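Q: Got a minute? One more chain.
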Amino acid sequence: MGHSRRDFLKAGAVGLGAASLALVAFDRFGRAPAGQALPELMGPLVLTNDETTGIPLLRVPEGFRYRTFSWTGSRMSDGRLVPGRVDGMGVVKQEGSRVTLVRNHEMAGSSGAIGPVSDSYDITGGGTTSLIYDLEDESLVESWVSLSGTLCNCAGGVTPWGTWLSCEEAVFSPELVDLPVPDRQLFWDIQNARREHGFVFEVPASGMARPEPIVAMGQFYHEAIAVDSVSGLVYMTEDVSPTSGFYRYIPDVPGQLAAGGRLQMMSVGQGLDMREGLVPFQKLDVSWVDIPEPQKAFTKGSRAGEGVQKQGFEAGASAFIGLEGCDTYERRVYFASKLGGKENAGYIFEYDPLEEQIWLVYESPGHDQISGPDNIIMSPRGSLVVCEDRVNRQKVGQSINGLTHEGAMFRFCQVNPDLKGQYGGHDLQETARNSEWSGVTFSMDGQWLFCNLFSPGMTIAITGPWREGLI
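A: Always. Here it is, folded:
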């Protein structure tokens, strides 16, 4: 076992005792090869009814239970309907038993914002909603639109000062509407949008955000964000194919991102291609190249929005592909590529900013196991929690999985693959059964895992007998 393998998720070695030996043995002898189902290390998954609706929505380990809330189309406290396409989410505040979550909505369109016109950035359909959930009563207390008029808000990240950074996974300029529409924008219906998009917005824990883009953080297909609480550096992923970049933002004033800063893009081994052919746990040297014009999203004659990454590649940055979730723990940074690897089924990376090295900690052997890792979060008990995307559109019953400190992936919960019926006007067989997972985040005491089903759109609170070294 190499040193870098022991490095992975160092927290996993804390408090494990004899359990750590079992995980090492699993890694050596039980790693699930391609074509085999992921192991269920927390116990066999059992079909369990949602305590809110009574629907057998999920399979979870014995002893775990869950409640759904804030479904798409239901009424919020501010009188508005919950928007659809629920995506990235984070806990930004907890007072006693009351947890405040901010949740993204990856909505496009340009026929009207989800919030009040006076508080909206544009007439586009993206934004965030905020939820206050009481852990003692196990109920939703309050909910409201907290960012409005943005575009395709995919993921983001929680800041150490208690706000949410919401990312637009869409690049647009009203000055370029006469140019050919890129393939990925064909069905977005954004021709009437009035302002430029492709930015990061900061959302407070209470009230509505001032919808001002943080331009210095770049105009590109933003996905997820992780903030190093010690250095104040901000790490960002980009979700676009066939090439994407991994970025960092160095704020002029830590904690005041809108005050300006410097945008850089990662170069591995002087421009190594990081999309496939990597050796697990092989450490590679990292350097960073400056992005001279962070708001230069477009190249001449194109509205594809790849201008920022092009600046990076010309300076020697490395190409990744389809980057997704990002998180930090003990000064390490973890991020996922949903299309990385030989099978285009996903990579997960670990980056050490102190040593300026990066290495691959997981490669999906096939879509039958994980069809693209998406949002991620570090469990307080020592594993990385990994949402499954749905890169393979034929797959049903997506999973939330755990990645141990030894690099072994296991299944924690799964959408019922035989789900049928309707709820709140939603056909669950067509929506939830085919949905990706998103928005994993823990309550500050670590006893509740919150997550989203992108479609039909709802938030889920899960609790149970968590295990050290696992989730």
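A: The first strand starts at residue 45 and ends at 48.
Q: Perfect, thanks.
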